[in-house]
Amino acid sequence: MADETTHRASEGGAPSASGPRSGAGSRPGGPAGPGGRKFFRRKKVCKFCTEKIDAIPYRDVRLLQGFVAERGKIVPRRLTGVCTTHQRRLTRAIKQARNIPLLPFAARY
Which of 16, 32, 45, 54 qualifies as a cystine partner to 25, CB 3.0-4.6 A? Predict the structure, then answer.
């Protein structure tokens, strides 16, 4: 404890960059932690590519609801695993379904 105060005093009182919260392994349970990763996360594969669906129909509400959060927001592709091309088509289909009142714009309170 005394070493820390003398060390800081010798630096001129400036906050140091190294501390208990800086660095790669500062988060508990992070990859540099004692246990490493606890489970293996499988790479997400595009649902539309695997099922070879080219056109995403805006009338298929059940399909589109899987990609819309309960608050009405479109779920990003990093969470769903959909590829970029299909995410754009999916977004367009969801927006079309919102304009024709098949899907809500937002959740009701």
Answer: 32
**Span 90-100, pLDDT tens digits:** 999 999 999 99
Q: For the domain bounded by 47-99, which CATH number is listed?
A: 4.10.640.10
pTM exceeds 0.90: no
Confidence of residue 33 (pLDDT cuts 50, 70, 90): low
- Looking at the DSSP bridge assignments, the partners of residue 68 are 74
DSSP output for the chain: -HHHHHHHHHTTSPPPS-STT-STT-STTSTTSSS--SSPPPPP--HHHHTT--S--TT-HHHHHTTB-TTSPBPPHHHH---HHHHHHHHHHHHHHHHTTTS-SS---
Domains of the chain, residue spans: 47-99
| CA 35 centroid distance within chain | 23
